[in-house]
Design goal:
Number of helices: 16
Order of helices and strands: EHHEEHEHHEHHHHHHHHHEEEEHHEE
Strand content: 5-15%
InterPro entries: Cyt_P450 (IPR001128), Cyt_P450_B (IPR002397), Cyt_P450_sf (IPR036396)
Largest sheet: 6 strands, mixed
Pfam families: p450
Helix content: 40-55%
Radius of gyration: 21 Å
Organism: Microbispora bryophytorum subsp. camponoti
Strand order of the largest sheet: 1-2-3-9-6-4
Protein name: Cytochrome P450
Family: Belongs to the cytochrome P450 family.
Shape: globular
């Protein structure tokens, strides 16, 4: 039996270059152990086929212990159990309620609204440049990649216009990573979700609550469902759904920032997408594979003793997928460490996970990223990094993200 490699997630080399560190573990064995001081080991599938299989295997489930919950006031506790922590019929019931708003068709229908939001943010970038006073530099993470996803998800869910500035602030806190700031923001987030539900019930949201109506229908639809069948959706569930969907909608923040930094660091790939905008959908898939923000899947728990590659993983043990390693698995992708925007789709990346907990907002994230990059490149033909992106990486073994993205326009 091949020895199981161990990866210390506090190792400076892992933090500096997780793709190389996780890739080395992948080539040694299909199963690894991740070491996290104070938390014990986590089993990790390192290769594409094993990772994909585990993510869809009912023997491994997400639970409350899969997440690092911050301390919150007692009145917030009922709203902390989100759809992500559920499995089986309970998870399927809630997902079925919200899934119609996140289909590829709905994302395509929402594209004109996303385009308008992108153009408005780019106008703001230009308007704010004189105030930056730094030779035309601007931080695209702060002024573009962070506010855009919040504006989009608020419009889709139906958060009232006047409440969106505070959701922007909460979104920036969440996107910056978990910690005390996030814990302090939670009561406000919960209250904001409750306010949005109350506004929808009172008819003040300004959006249609009919299926197939204008963007912003989701909250109105949830309120309608509850009014027609109170047993199907409780007050606690609807508030929890709203805050979770809005905050989870920040996923494209790090994706957009990573994608822009990658293209600006690879002149040939940048030139290719500039020359042929039709490449953009495929280019975004390649960028998710090559530099997507998810390095590790959220840990699952074994529901029973499970044998993985000759190793018995005991009941209750944590198991994850090394997404960064799987997405660069040479068994699946030719020359996987090379960024190639014309790469054929092939087997598909695991950047949005797989199985029952496949990212609900994947289609929306794809469209946002396509629109955002296309608009940036079109509006600013001289766009360039002001600082090498590698100097601005957050030391995070689970999420590939930037702390800032200064560029010259």
């Amino acid at each position: 039996m091949t020895p199981v490699p161990e990866v210390d997630l506090t190792d400076p080399e892992v933090l500096r270059d997780p793709f190389t560190a996780y890739g080395r573990a992948r080539e040694r064995a299909p199963l690894a152990r991740l070491l996290i001081p104070g938390l014990g080991p986590i089993w990790a599938l390192t290769r594409h086929d094993g990772a994909r299989t585990m993510l869809a295997d009912a023997r491994f489930e997400l639970t409350a212990d899969s997440f690092m919950r911050p301390q919150v006031p007692d009145d917030c506790l009922p709203y902390m159990r989100t759809m992500s922590e559920m499995s089986g019929p309970e998870h399927a019931r809630l997902r079925q309620l919200v899934a119609p708003a996140f289909t590829p068709r709905r994302a395509a229908e929402f594209r004109p609204r996303i385009e308008a939001l992108v153009e408005a943010l780019l106008d703001d970038l230009l308007d704010d440049l004189p105030a930056q006073g730094d030779g035309g530099r601007v931080d695209l993470l702060r002024h573009f990649a962070r506010p855009l996803p919040m504006d989009v998800i608020c419009a889709l869910v139906g958060i009232p216009e006047q409440d969106r500035p505070r959701w922007r602030e909460w979104g920036a806190t969440v996107a910056a990573g978990a910690g005390q700031d996030f814990a302090r923001a939670i009561p406000g987030i919960m209250a904001g979700a409750a306010d949005a539900v109350a506004a929808a019930r009172a008819g003040h949201s300004g959006h249609s609550d009919k299926p197939g109506g204008v963007p912003g229908e989701l909250l109105g639809e949830l309120v309608r469902v509850q009014a027609e069948d109170g047993d199907r959706l409780s007050d606690t569930e609807i508030v929890t759904l709203v805050w979770h969907l809005v905050i989870a909608g920040q996923t494209p923040t790090n994706l957009i920032a990573n994608a822009v930094a990658a293209l600006l660091s690879h002149p040939a790939q940048l030139a290719a997408v500039r020359a042929d905008p039709a490449l953009m959908p495929g280019a975004v898939e390649e960028l998710i594979r090559w530099c997507g923000p998810t390095l590790l899947a959220i840990p699952r728990h074994a529901r029973q003793d499970v044998e993985l590659h000759g190793v018995t993983v005991p009941e209750g043990a944590k198991v994850t997928a090394l997404i960064a390693a799987a997405n660069r698995d040479p068994r699946v992708f030719d020359d996987p460490d090379r960024l190639e925007v014309t790469r054929a789709p092939g087997a598909g990346h695991l950047g949005f996970a797989h199985g029952p907990h496949f990212c609900l907002g994947a289609s929306l994230a794809r469209v946002q990223t396509q629109v955002a990059i296309a608009a940036l490149l079109r509006r600013f033909p001289g766009l360039a990094l002001a600082v090498p992106a590698d100097e601005l990486r957050a030391p995070d073994p689970g999420t590939w993200r930037l702390t800032a993205l200064p560029v010259t326009l």
